[in-house]
Design brief:
0% of the residues lie in helices and 53% in strands. It has 116 residues and is mostly beta strands. Strands 2, 4, 5, 6, 9, 10 and 11 form a 7-stranded mixed sheet that branches. A 4-stranded antiparallel sheet has the order 1-3-8-7, with no helix packed on it. The radius of gyration is 13 Å and the shape is globular.
């Protein structure tokens, strides 16, 4: 069955870094655009970054441009989110999503907490 499993979240101090991973299985990973979303308590889920099927195009929310980098390894069926210069406002549950046409698959999320 389809699975997206996020990992790499945790507690980090402001200014620190984390790398999130999302391992996919059960579908043709290379055919799907991948994205990372996040949802902070009491707020709507928001798009953080997205990457095309062959990593030809990436897009970022203005709030993370220059600090976060999305990448994918089609051989490993994995998408990554490198997060640098983390701020307390980056605290949220981070989700990965796979999209092809009108089909979306979501992971279960991983908690990122930025606090001193």
């Amino acid at each position: 069955q389809v699975q997206l499993v996020e990992s790499g979240g945790g507690l980090v101090q402001p200014g620190g870094s984390l790398r999130l991973s999302c391992a996919a299985s059960g579908f043709t990973f290379r055919s799907y655009a991948m994205s990372w979303y996040r949802q902070a308590p009491g707020k709507a889920r928001e798009l953080v970054a997205s990457i095309g099927t062959f990593a030809g195009r990436t897009d970022y929310a203005d709030s993370v441009k220059g600090r976060f980098t999305i990448s994918r390894d089609n051989a490993k069926n994995t998408v990554y989110l490198q997060m640098n210069s983390l701020k307390p406002e980056d605290t949220a549950v981070y989700y990965c999503k796979a999209t092809m046409g009108w089909v979306d698959y979501w992971g279960q999320g991983t908690q990122v907490t930025v606090s001193s």
